[in-house]
Amino acid sequence: MPEVNIRKIITAVEEIHHEGGPRANVPLRRASIMAVIANPYAGAYHEDIQPFMEDLKPLGVMMAQRLVETLGGDAGAVRGYGKGAIIGAGGEIEHGALWHAPGGYAMREVLGGAKAIVPSTKKVGAAGTRLDVPVTHVDASYVRSHFDSIEVGINDAPRANEMAVVLVMTTGPRVHDRAGGLAAEDITGEDGLR
Fold it and tell me: How far apart are CA 194 and CA 191, in angstroms?
């Protein structure tokens, strides 16, 4: 199996106090982490690519831990999450699918067993490509107040033979959420939906 060759890691955090309405009592914090790594399958079609998922698992855990630290160190404070990948032009969209399990399971592990599916997106693009990573509540996908996205990208990545794998986390709902639907305090199920 190929080793994960990291070129750089980019971490960003934003703190939202208001969106034109009243100031939030506690600002919403949103953070992303992106690792730019070599794509061992770039440049040619490879039938068997699944072994790379095993190699990505430690990277996923490290990134999830760093993201929790970026948001203050309390995994219990994380209420939203998502993941994504940008694959350089020498690769294919399926290479981004290799991040689904390592990225998602890493966040669930680090967050202590979050139940909701981790929303995801991926695309092939050149250096500078931007990606909107979807966010949902960590325990129930139907909590509308936590539907969000975080835009990520970096000017010099991914190069054609690279991929950028991304995790995002938030500390709560949108600052002025008022679109109704299932409220976080009304989650009843353990199926990750409601």
Answer: 7
The DSSP bridge pattern shows strands 162-170 and 148-152 to be unpaired
Residue written as tokens 């949103």?
30
Longest dimension (CA), the chain: 54
Q: What is the pLDDT of residue 192?
A: 81
The pLDDT of residue 102: 97
Q: Find residue 16's DSSP bridge partners.
A: 28
DSSP summary character for residue 23: P
Which of 118, 102, 128 lies closest to 170, judged by CA? Answer: 118
Domain boundaries, the chain: 6-186
Rounded to two decimals, the pTM is 0.96
What token pair was written down for 7?
A: 């070129």
- What whole-number distance in Å separates Cα of residue 171 and Cα of residue 180? 19
Are the C-beta atoms of 112 and 64 separated by less than 8 Å?
Answer: no
Summarised one tens digit per residue, pLDDT across range 41-75 is 999 999 999 999 999 999 999 999 999 999 999 99
Domain 6-186 top-level CATH class: alpha beta
Q: According to the model, what pLDDT value does residue 116 have? A: 95
Give the Å distances, CA to CA, from 21 to 13, 18, 51, 79, 190.
21, 6, 49, 22, 34
Low-confidence ranges of the chain (pLDDT < 70): 1-2
